[in-house]
Amino acid sequence: MGKTVRMISSDGFIAASAIDATDIVQRAHEIHGTSHTASAALGRVLAVTSLIGGGLKVDGGSVTVRFDGDGAGGRIIAVAASDGAVRGWVERPMVDLERREDGKLDVGSFVGHEGSLTIIKDLGMRDPYVGTVGLVGGEVAEDIAGYFVESEQIPTACAAGVLVAPDGSILSAGAYLVQLLPGAGEDVVDKLERAIVGAGAVTKLFSAGNGPEAILRTLLDGFDPIKLDEYDTPYRCDCSLERVERALVSTGKAALQEMIEKDRGAEVTCQFCDKVYRFTSENLAELLKRATRD
Ligand code: ZN
Q1: Distance 237 CA to ligand 1 centre (A)
Q2: pLDDT tens profile 55-68
């Protein structure tokens, strides 16, 4: 279970949230069999997506974060609910890359230095809010900050890090998101920038055993922060037999006919949790009836 804390500065100009996502990224590693670099890339995306989801303030809302970069790992997608529960997927989870010269995992080359980042916010209204921006390097956190500045005009500082053990298990993972609210003056910006630089690298902060609350108090040093809430954030997939059945029905009569006659059944694997749904010819014949009715 991940842990998330949200805070606001007492002057009301800065909103901040941080997540310890170690268990979430470990779960993703177990489901997808991610390489070291893939764990770092997907893990950063999962951690930040959970923070964005938890900030939606709409029950039943969700956010989808999609990286379409030109890197070795292909597309990365994460989806979070408004309670911060998150799930994710990476196109080529087994691909690994040489570490960079500074010893860090090469997330930028895995995600891609060129490409786009799309964020879809479903707030329960008729149409979701969709924004797309170009990547600014593929290191994930900088791309997310760039998205908020460019697409939502919200000055944002974002950091995300994942520390992978030699055996591939996740030692620590976490992220923070710090955003300026309307009315913040230059003095606030300067003081905040100094505090963020002073706090140091996010991976070091988490791997040193600091929890999300301690990290936020470091980032908001001098702003007398107030804790808004603290909650557990699981890796959670909401796939179900009903959803998979609906998806099969929507493939159409011809496709179902072929699964029945040629394959004598079907096996559908959920891309987010690797759960396998098996259908016999009889099951499929039922779905074919539904497809014919619609
Ligand atoms: Zn699933």
Answers
A1: 5
A2: 998 888 999 999 99
